[in-house]
Design a protein that fits this description.
Strands 1-2-4-3 form a four-stranded antiparallel beta sheet. The longest helix has 18 residues, at about 100-115. The protein is an alpha+beta fold. It has helices at about 15-20, 30-40, 45-50, 65-75, 100-115; strands at about 20-25, 25-30, 60-65, 95. It is built from five helices and four strands. Helices cover about 45% and strands about 15% of the residues. It is globular.
């Protein structure tokens, strides 16, 4: 988990969060890195949790983008935020989460923190 001291404090309003929602494969989803940012986790930690619990995440909750979908997402931006520090250094294609997938993920993340505490 990212320490709050390491974060710039950002207040999100509904419009800011709406800008993080994309329609991919006919579903409204958020990128793994955006979910991580909103909930103060590292993207790596989120993706590790998904991989460890893959049976919990059917495609209607979470799926990994393919190259074409990622290219289409990049093309939606005049100045692509996908090419900045949050996305440019990625080695793997991002995961995306539906609303139900985010709820499932948060339950698992809290459970892992409770186990480690």
């Amino acid at each position: 988990m990212i320490d709050n001291k390491e974060l710039d404090v950002i207040k999100y309003d509904i419009d800011n969060i709406k800008n993080l929602i994309y329609t991919i494969r006919g579903q409204q989803v958020m990128l793994d890195s955006d979910v991580a940012m909103l909930y103060h986790y590292e993207t790596k930690k989120i993706n590790q949790t998904v991989k460890r619990n893959i049976q919990t995440f059917p495609e209607k909750f979470c799926f990994q983008l393919n190259e074409e979908e990622l290219d289409n997402l990049r093309s939606q931006f005049v100045t692509s935020s996908l090419e900045k520090e949050n996305y440019g250094g990625r080695r793997y294609l991002p995961y995306v989460f539906t609303e139900q997938g985010i709820a499932m993920l948060l339950g698992l993340l809290r459970n892992e923190i409770a186990i480690l505490a």
